[in-house]
Amino acid sequence: MAGGGDGPLRVGFVVYGELDERSGGYLYDRRLVDHLRGRGLDVDVISLPERRYRRAIATNATPGLVDRLRACDVVVQDAFCHPSVVLCNRRLRDTPVIALVHYLRSAATRRPWRGGTTATARMRVWTVTALERAYLRGVDGYIHNSSATRGAVAALVGTPSAELHDVVAPPAGDRLGTGRSPSAEHLRGEPFRVVFVGNVTPRKGVKTLIQGLARIDAPWELRVVGDTAVDPECVADARTLAKRRGVAEAVSFLGRVDDERLREELRDAHVLAVPSRYEPFGIVYLEGMAFGLPAIAAARGGAEEFVNDTNGALIPPEDPAAVADAIEPLIRDRDRLGRMSRAARETFERHPNWEDTCDRIRRFLAGVADRPDRYQ
């Protein structure tokens, strides 16, 4: 621990790769680092190489890593990095370590669409669960992105939620600003436009979305906004599915776009639909709500904390019928769409912004480091 009372609080921030990645977790990390630096804290971003799970354990032996962590007053670790630091942390007896938990890797590994039932898959589940539990039991506190994540952590470590030394600090949806409330003319526009925002991977549910929309006997258009290079096989499967269902002309894959183009897509849409198999929180739903878009969201994870039947719908994993049941009534009843649009915007306005969220974390870290004078 850096120790002493002179100079700004020194925070170590451990992540895989670079903070400019486009996922919601990296957006959260980047916002937090920028906030802490903006308030005068000395933040050392410690970028570790992302490796296959078992190989990542070798990162614990990186020369100089423990010394670099010890030089900090408090260390925040993106918990996704846990195999790379779980052994290092045992040597940081005088430096408090906080796990920033976006989601549990063990929970994702246990899901049937990821693990399968082979002996190898079962061994992987056991390994990830055991190592993640050991990591989380060895830290000094937690930052959770949702109450759902907090509950999952408590269950894994075997401690009641109320006894955790932690803070729940949900992501915000104000990164893109806000759009005008949709006009009556826009709400009644044809064709009905659905926007999907996210990396095009199996977990995000784009194939479920296409299957659900294909059930609807009314004009619609789907705009898929997100990286198509992460899983080219998934993209190819989605395109093939759209052709097979006879809706290929209604589905557009735009790839990654800049923020201004994303704002345009959100302004032009009627609903945002990302029926993921699981979302630890779902920043994208709030970003859509900032533009008055009802959210067709994952039923599993943190979205249930702010998405409901007044501002969207919660979709069980891989349930095309539920997608159709959620969207078709909005196509046919634009007054209902208008009510849900207004409710979505109100949900966004009630939600904490990034400044609120990061300030909550900053004050939590002050208490952990036992130096509240640094945060006045």
UniProtKB/TrEMBL annotation:
<feature type="domain" description="Glycosyl transferase family 1">
    <location>
        <begin position="187"/>
        <end position="346"/>
    </location>
</feature>
<dbReference type="GO" id="GO:0016757">
    <property type="term" value="F:glycosyltransferase activity"/>
</dbReference>
<keyword id="KW-0328">Glycosyltransferase</keyword>
<dbReference type="InterPro" id="IPR001296">
    <property type="entry name" value="Glyco_trans_1"/>
</dbReference>
<dbReference type="Pfam" id="PF00534">
    <property type="entry name" value="Glycos_transf_1"/>
</dbReference>
<keyword id="KW-0808">Transferase</keyword>
<protein>
    <submittedName>
        <fullName>Glycosyltransferase involved in cell wall bisynthesis</fullName>
    </submittedName>
</protein>
